[in-house]
Design a protein that fits this description.
The complex is a heterodimer. Chain A has a domain of 107 residues: Methylamine Dehydrogenase, Chain H (7 Propeller), CATH 2.130.10. Chain A is globular. Chain A contains 2 helices and 30 strands. By secondary structure, chain A is an all-beta fold. Chain B is mostly helical. Chain B has a domain of 71 residues. Helix content of chain B is 49%, strand content 1%. In chain B, helix 13 packs across helix 17, helix 13 packs parallel to helix 20 and helix 13 packs across helix 21. Chain B is elongated and about 95 Å long. The chains are: A mainly beta, B mainly alpha. Chains A and B meet through strand 5, strand 8, strand 9, strand 13 and strand 17 of A and helix 7, helix 8, strand 1, helix 12 and helix 17 of B. Chain A: InterPro entries: WD40/YVTN_repeat-like_dom_sf, WD40_PAC1, WD40_repeat_CS, WD40_repeat_dom_sf, WD40_rpt. Chain A: Pfam families: WD40 (PF00400).
């Protein structure tokens, strides 16, 4: 694919053409390349974009809204959604197949390349493992509640569920739960993402707050955990508190970006407890964020998530912005 | 829990239940937080001192100690640091701390939010922490809440770091304490009873139920008015979602009051889940029938294209059998065709269940889903992906454009069907 500069491209940021027609549930960059971006949507499509050329390369249509997607490798991608089916797609041949089902919607899909396993978390309160080589389910593991968010740190699987439970599993030994925790935040878990260095995870709640937690249960390590407020705006003396919907890590710097329903993206240095930068306000809620593997690019999905009891009169279009980030924005000072 | 001794020695503030590493800091805290005159900002030494100061200097009466927990506002009691705290409160504090883990005592503000660090030891946390925490909260709303307000400065991580010595003093909004407790109090309860409590978002102050049973009533009444409730998931049908206190005097959480994820809520929207789904297991054949009819509509249009596909699928007979297990989950086979969005819903399967099982089997049925899922491949078999652009935009209406795409290259369609099967051959068995 020739690299074509899109006309609308501004200095560091541009909007992807051919965006999904409905809510964006997840964006993910391909492993090892900032060129390809995968996107699952409530419009029942799974789309692959060539970010550099700003074109959509492939689109798969499924039977229902998709809630998550993930790359296995640059060619093979996985997705799951409301219909509870786990789908595997081959980008080169543009073929897709249903690998298996959950009894309720699949909320999360994660892939461990090292272990050749796909992990799905569902509202049926189970996690299932799937062998990518045989496309078969290798186990079903009951979780305390509906799975809301999941992340992998090496062989560790961190599952965040309803009722603020956080269970930590070891993919090599799923016989028992390694750790049963409760979220340190007092409100519903919205998203969680493991550190690239696998030592812990960052968890966000609907109440404009983010917790940095460590997996090592020893008291010295646990002492380092903390939480902070963010994605809040004071309006007329009332503090508006927004859900923090997305977290993504910069693989090299261990810094992370958070996106909230306030339409803002912040980048944090978790180690030094500092905010590195805040981008301009996007048209609506940040539904998903993804750093490219090399940390050069940030994909920002701005997509209304129906946080309000009464939806606003006009809902901004669902859009994906691709932003080239600088060291100044992402590197600890 | 070998740290009992240390914990006992931690000084704490009677007015707001905060713990401190050092009584000197505690006294500073009290002077700045609780004994400061709101008019002239003079720092007094005790509650009565403040009251007398205000009376004499400003001719104002103070009825409660500023920034105190609701039941700790007594201006008459003379408290200085740890001195003067009523005996029973001392004891209660000690007792409550048993349930709260050590994170409370950490002087670092940042940790304050983590009222419990529960790790490992399956089940332990519930037995141990749950009841304790609950008691703490119902006995005195104050006790369990104390750690919360100071959590972090408003500016994120930075805020928390600024004042390790005087945690939360600067960052806390002036009336934060009195404003926050109700909001925090309710959500804190799920610790012990995650799904049963409820709170009234607008008037949290005395309305907060102390016991789950009481809360159950509240939850029932509020969620009873929501007709589209149990769309996805049968588990939903039985338990009402907990409610979040989204509104306090000074804050508003931009989130619906039901304590379910935005996605779950969205999935219940008519757009994704036709109203029928709310019928769920309930009889109400009427509505179900109605839905059924609705569902039929799309079917017919899709049948057209599935017809086109049928040949291809027949060409590979085993496919029908293979696909079955994959999509079997009771619901999927037939309803999927009727309306992809209906799948997995409890209501539909019952309807479909009325049909003889073979309904699931004939190739046309299976051809449908395959097709629906794979519109693209058919069109995309060619190498030139970029050419796809226009074709895709036409995909907005799956059914219609589908037929258009699917028909022309019959051979391409066949090819595409086969490919998935190659993949699927290994797939079906998943348990």
């Amino acid at each position: 694919m020739a690299t074509v500069e899109a006309g609308s491209r501004s200095s560091s940021e541009f909007q992807l053409k051919n965006g999904p027609a409905d809510g964006i549930s997840r964006v993910r960059f391909a492993p090892n390349s900032p060129q390809f971006l995968l996107c699952s949507s409530w419009d029942s499509t799974l789309r692959l974009y060539d970010v550099q050329a700003n074109t959509m390369r492939v689109k798969f249509l499924s039977g229902g809204p998709l809630l998550d997607c993930a790359f296995q490798d640059p060619i093979h991608v996985w997705s799951g959604g409301l219909e509870g089916q786990l789908r595997s797609a081959d980008i080169n041949s543009s073929t897709e197949s249903i690998v298996g089902t959950h009894e309720n919607a699949i909320r999360c899909v994660e892939v461990s390349q090292e272990l050749n396993v796909v992990v799905t978390g569902s509202w049926d309160s189970t996690v299932k493992l799937w062998d990518t080589r045989t496309n078969s389910c290798t186990g079903t593991y009951t979780q305390p509640e509906k799975v809301y968010s999941m992340s992998l740190a090496g062989e560790k699987l961190v599952v965040g569920t309803a009722s603020r439970k956080v269970w930590v599993w070891d993919l090599r030994n799923m016989g028992y739960v390694q750790q049963k925790r409760e979220s340190s935040l007092k409100f519903q878990t919205r998203f969680l993402e493991c550190f690239p260095n696998k030592q812990g995870f960052v968890l966000s709640s609907i109440e404009g707050r983010v917790a940095v937690e460590y997996l090592d249960p020893s008291p010295e390590v646990q002492k380092r955990k903390y939480a902070f407020k963010c994605h809040r705006v004071k309006e007329n003396g009332i503090e508006m508190i927004y859900p923090v919907n997305a977290i993504t890590f910069h693989k090299d710097y261990n810094t992370f970006a958070t996106g909230g329903s306030d339409g803002l993206v912040n980048i944090w240095d978790g180690q030094h407890k500092k905010r590195l930068c805040q981008f301009h306000k996007y048209p609506t809620s940040i539904a998903s964020l993804a750093f490219s593997n090399d940390g050069s690019t940030l994909a920002i999905a701005s997509s209304y998530m129906h946080e309000h009891e009464k939806p606003p009169e006009s809902i901004p279009e669902d859009a994906i912005y691709i932003r080239t980030v600088t060291d100044q924005e992402t590197k600890p000072k | 829990m070998g740290r009992k001794k240390k914990k006992q020695s931690k000084p704490w503030c009677w007015y707001c239940n905060r713990e401190f590493d050092d009584e000197k800091i505690l006294i500073q805290h009290q002077k700045a937080k609780h004994f400061k005159c709101h008019i002239c900002h003079k720092k007094l030494y005790t509650g009565p001192g403040l009251s007398i100061h205000c009376m004499q200097v400003h001719k104002e009466t103070i009825d409660k100690v500023p920034n105190s927990q609701p039941n700790r506002g007594n201006i008459e009691i003379e408290i200085y640091g740890m001195e003067g705290i009523p005996q029973e409160d001392l004891q209660e504090h000690e007792r409550n701390k048993g349930g709260q883990s050590h994170s409370l005592s950490s002087g670092l503000v940042l940790n304050a939010n983590t009222h419990s660090i529960i790790i490992g030891f399956a089940g332990n946390n519930d037995d141990e922490d749950g009841p304790e925490a609950k008691r703490a909260k119902s006995d005195s709303p104050a006790s369990g809440l104390a750690p919360t307000p100071p959590v972090v400065g408003p500016a994120g991580p930075l805020g928390g770091m600024v004042v390790p010595g005087l945690p939360g003093m600067a960052p806390r909004p002036p009336f934060g304490v009195s404003g926050i407790p109700p909001g925090w109090g309710a959500p804190a309860m799920p610790v012990s009873s995650p799904t049963t409590y409820a709170s009234h978002p607008t008037g949290p102050n005395g309305a907060r139920p102390l016991f789950p049973s009481a809360a159950g009533g509240g939850a029932a009444s509020s969620s009873g008015s929501k007709p589209t409730f149990p769309a996805y998931g049968d588990t939903n049908g039985e338990k009402k979602p907990a409610m979040i206190a989204t509104t306090t005097a000074t804050t508003r959480i931009v989130h619906p009051p039901e304590d379910i994820s935005l996605e779950e809520r969205r999935a219940k929207m008519p757009k994704y889940a036709p109203p029928v789904s709310s019928v769920s297991a309930v009889s109400t054949s009427q509505q179900a029938q109605h839905l059924h009819h609705q569902a039929q509509l799309p079917v017919s249009s899709q049948h057209l294209m599935s017809g086109a596909m049928m040949n291809a699928s027949i060409a590979a007979p085993p496919m029908g059998m293979q696909t079955l297990p994959m999509t079997s989950q009771a619901v999927t086979g037939a309803p999927m065709m009727a309306n992809p969005f209906l799948m997995g819903r409890p209501g539909i399967p019952h309807q479909m269940g009325g049909m003889p099982p073979q309904m699931f089997q004939p190739p046309p049925m299976l051809g449908g889903p395959q097709l629906v899922r794979q519109p693209f491949p058919a069109a995309m078999v060619g190498p030139a992906m970029s050419a796809m652009g226009p074709a895709m935009s036409a995909m907005g209406l799956p059914a219609m454009s589908f037929a258009a795409l699917g028909m022309p290259p019959a051979s391409a369609a066949a090819a595409m069907v086969q490919t998935p099967f190659g993949l699927m051959g290994t797939a079906p068995r998943f348990r």
